[in-house]
What we know:
It is built from five helices and 24 strands. The protein is mainly β. Strands 7, 8, 9, 10 and 11 form a five-stranded antiparallel sheet that branches. The protein has a four-stranded antiparallel sheet with strand order 3-4-5-6, with no helix packed on it. The protein has a four-stranded antiparallel sheet with strand order 12-13-14-15, with no helix packed on it. β21 (336-341) and β22 form a beta hairpin. α1 crosses α3.
Amino acid sequence: MCLPPPPQxxxxxxxxxxxxxxxDIFLLIPADDPKSLVRAAAxxxxxxxxxxxxxxTREYRTLHGTPPMLGFLHNTSHTRRxxxxxxxxxxxxxxxxxxxxxxxxxxxxDSRHGLVLFHTSKKGEGFVIWDLVTKDWWRxxxxxxxxxxxxxxxxxxxxxxNAAVLCAKDQCDHVYCHGGPFRVALVGSDEEQGITxxxxxxxxxxKWSDMIxxxxxxxxxxxxxxAVLGDKVYFQCQDDEIIAEYNIGExxxxxxxxxxxxxxxxxxxxPLVGVEDGMLLFAYVLEPRLYLWSMExxxxxAENWARRSVIELEPLLPPPALLHVxxxxxxxxxxxxxxxxxxxxxTIELNSGRSKKLxxxxxxxxxxxxxxxxxxxxx
Length: 379
């Protein structure tokens, strides 16, 4: 975005009037172009003062609404043949956080509300949470029960688990959640004992809740997508038709099956990918089509299970990208779905149908979009 030249002092132009005009111009800078805000702040002290003002940053976030996608995270395997300094974070904008370089002992688990959750294999620790915008980070020590669980190799079929991070601010609209408080929800399964269990960490108390469990042997998918609706966190199980629900507020864990799709019995079950318009979103690719379903979270799930849309991929992707297509991520609020293909990683905007190639390759398992405003004010 081209910015006007800095204001020149003039006896006929009161500084307050010039500042008001520049404020209105700065408000129009696209939220997914944070570099323009940074460059504008470096022009002069007056512009820096405007852009750093907390009132401006609040107005900016209110005007633009949904936080933009600044990039995405994915995990890479490490072998002797691979080069070092791989990155977990791939920018889709001008945003370049300095703390995103690959750490060999960290594995990205979840990204939500401006926070990223990592599992660390470092002895005596459990999780690390990073705010990529403010550069704040927190180390979370696992409880004794959780430590026994997360210390298992994720390739071990006996115990499987996954974890989510979510904002814990009262009545938060999740437009700007930086600074905490937050919670970490851990859900797993033990095939030998035939149970599914859960626990939650609280930023306010710095403690884990007592572990709860039910007699359900369905294995949690370690790289499955996670959805959050209020105090309820949803985890994909290895059986695509089964979802685990963890009600943090009431400390209840349960599992449920997806309803049958009678009119399309030939279609496989669609895995959970996220939340859209207050409903759980499921997606599956049966080449060359992308099928989307939505379901209301609650006791009447089957009554509110509906096909959202069917998208023909052939007009949107080049021929090489129509091979071996799988859904690997979804950016909530902006309606962008990630497709891993033989030709690389692509995104499709559900509303406009526009497609874009983002990356030449990923691990092929899970992409975690990072959504946040990047403004100079921190309140």
